[in-house]
Specification:
binds S-adenosylmethionine, eight-stranded mixed beta sheet, globular, Rossmann fold, three-stranded antiparallel beta sheet
């Protein structure tokens, strides 16, 4: 372990103590309890510098390597409707050191590697097609975290960056004005925070449990620079959080600290691939909290239909309902992960019906 790994592990332990002594409703459910332990092991074994080979595969970076994978099939269905040879021309480095929550090593060679490169390349073309904000021409996958390097005309691309750009654009297309205060619940290593912080002068607040909270803090500090970070601490400092900024910055909190924010403080609250992995009571609590803290928009991207065996909870798209004055203003099947929905609610909007 490097001294960097040591200090991330110490930060994780400090945050764990804080979460353990906080309200019970915010503590990890059964599904995440196992995964947390495994993710901490990954940091100890492979180092924080390799987080995009290890923990990120438990967040959103899917190892799509099989022809029968639903994401692979829907990517090719998209390609048939939008023919381009671009995804086949990208270059990918040889990959090693991959792991997931299952302890078996993941091999990515030969056909598996080719399929992963094609899938990631198609996800990128979907992002290009949706990208009214022009981010695909301006951003590339940061080398921090040792990603699987795929190059499109020399630019480093990835499925994580493609998905984040798609999520950003979906919300931006409906937003009356660019959101200046954003809350994200359960941000993984911070892939979407990176895009928001580079896209606009936003104050982006991450609410998460450790180890992800410490991992995203380390990652975004390395990628954006310490001057654009408000580190994790005991109390939210509203004076500093309310200061206007020229470049996007990111602040870090435990989930229970969201309660300390005034109602309607954020322009946008969002959460991706999180709620079905929690007990139902916790998921309902979070939806209520996110709705209370947003004055404008609430964006959820989650499984359309999924059973969480560890917490014995079954979720469908209809599991997340928001009472008036919230109204659903946009809804679709996710263009890359077609087993997920995208739903955007607007406070006080006429809406597209629930
Ligand atoms: C599957 S990952 C998704 C990460 C990220 N949204 C993404 O799409 O890359 C689930 C996230 O939910 C967080 N999470 C799990 N249990 C939580 C809880 N009880 N409270 C807050 N966040 C939680 C995890 O720490 C992790 O960041």
């Amino acid at each position: 372990m490097t001294s960097e790994d040591d200090s991330v592990i110490r930060e994780i332990e400090r945050m764990q103590r804080d979460v353990a002594s906080g309200p019970e409703i915010y503590r990890p459910g059964e599904f995440w309890t196992d995964l947390l332990a495994r993710n901490i092991e990954m940091i100890r074994d492979s180092g924080i510098a390799n987080l995009k080979r290890t923990v990120s595969n438990n967040y959103y970076n899917w190892l799509v390597t099989k022809q029968k994978d639903p994401q692979f099939r829907s990517a090719f269905a998209w390609l048939l409707r939008h023919p381009t040879s671009r995804p086949f021309l990208n270059e990918m480095e040889a990959v090693s050191g991959l792991s997931t929550q299952r302890r078996d090593a993941v091999s990515m060679s030969g056909n598996a590697a080719r399929r992963y490169r094609w899938f990631s390349g198609i996800a990128w073309e979907i992002a290009v097609a949706e990208d009214r904000a022009g981010l695909t021409g301006r951003l590339q996958e940061p080398e921090v975290g040792n990603p699987i390097r795929i190059r499109r005309q020399g630019r480093l691309i990835s499925q994580d960056l493609a998905n984040s750009i798609i999520e950003y654009n979906f919300v931006a297309a409906q937003a009356p004005a660019p959101p200046r205060r954003v809350a994200e619940l359960g941000a993984g290593y911070g892939r979407l925070a990176f895009v928001h912080a580079e896209a606009a002068p936003v104050t982006y607040c991450i609410f998460d449990i450790p180890p992800a909270l410490a991992i995203s803090e380390w990652y975004l500090t390395a990628v954006l620079g310490a001057d654009r970070i408000i580190p994790y601490g005991e109390e939210p400092d509203f004076e500093s959080l309310s200061r206007p900024v020229e470049r996007g910055r990111v602040a870090f909190f435990r989930p229970d600290q969201m309660e300390r924010f005034p109602d309607r403080w954020f322009d946008l609250c969002q959460s991706i691939s999180t709620l079905p992995e929690m007990p139902r009571r916790q998921s309902d609590h979070y939806v209520e909290l996110l709705a209370a803290k947003s004055r404008g928009l609430l964006f959820l991207k989650q499984w359309r239909d999924w059973h969480n065996p560890a917490d014995d909870a079954h979720y469908t798209e209809e599991s997340y309902s928001l009472p008036a004055p919230w109204a659903l203003s946009a809804r679709r099947v996710d263009p890359v992960q077609t087993q997920f929905f995208n739903r955007l609610w607007e406070r006080g909007a006429g809406g597209a019906g629930a």
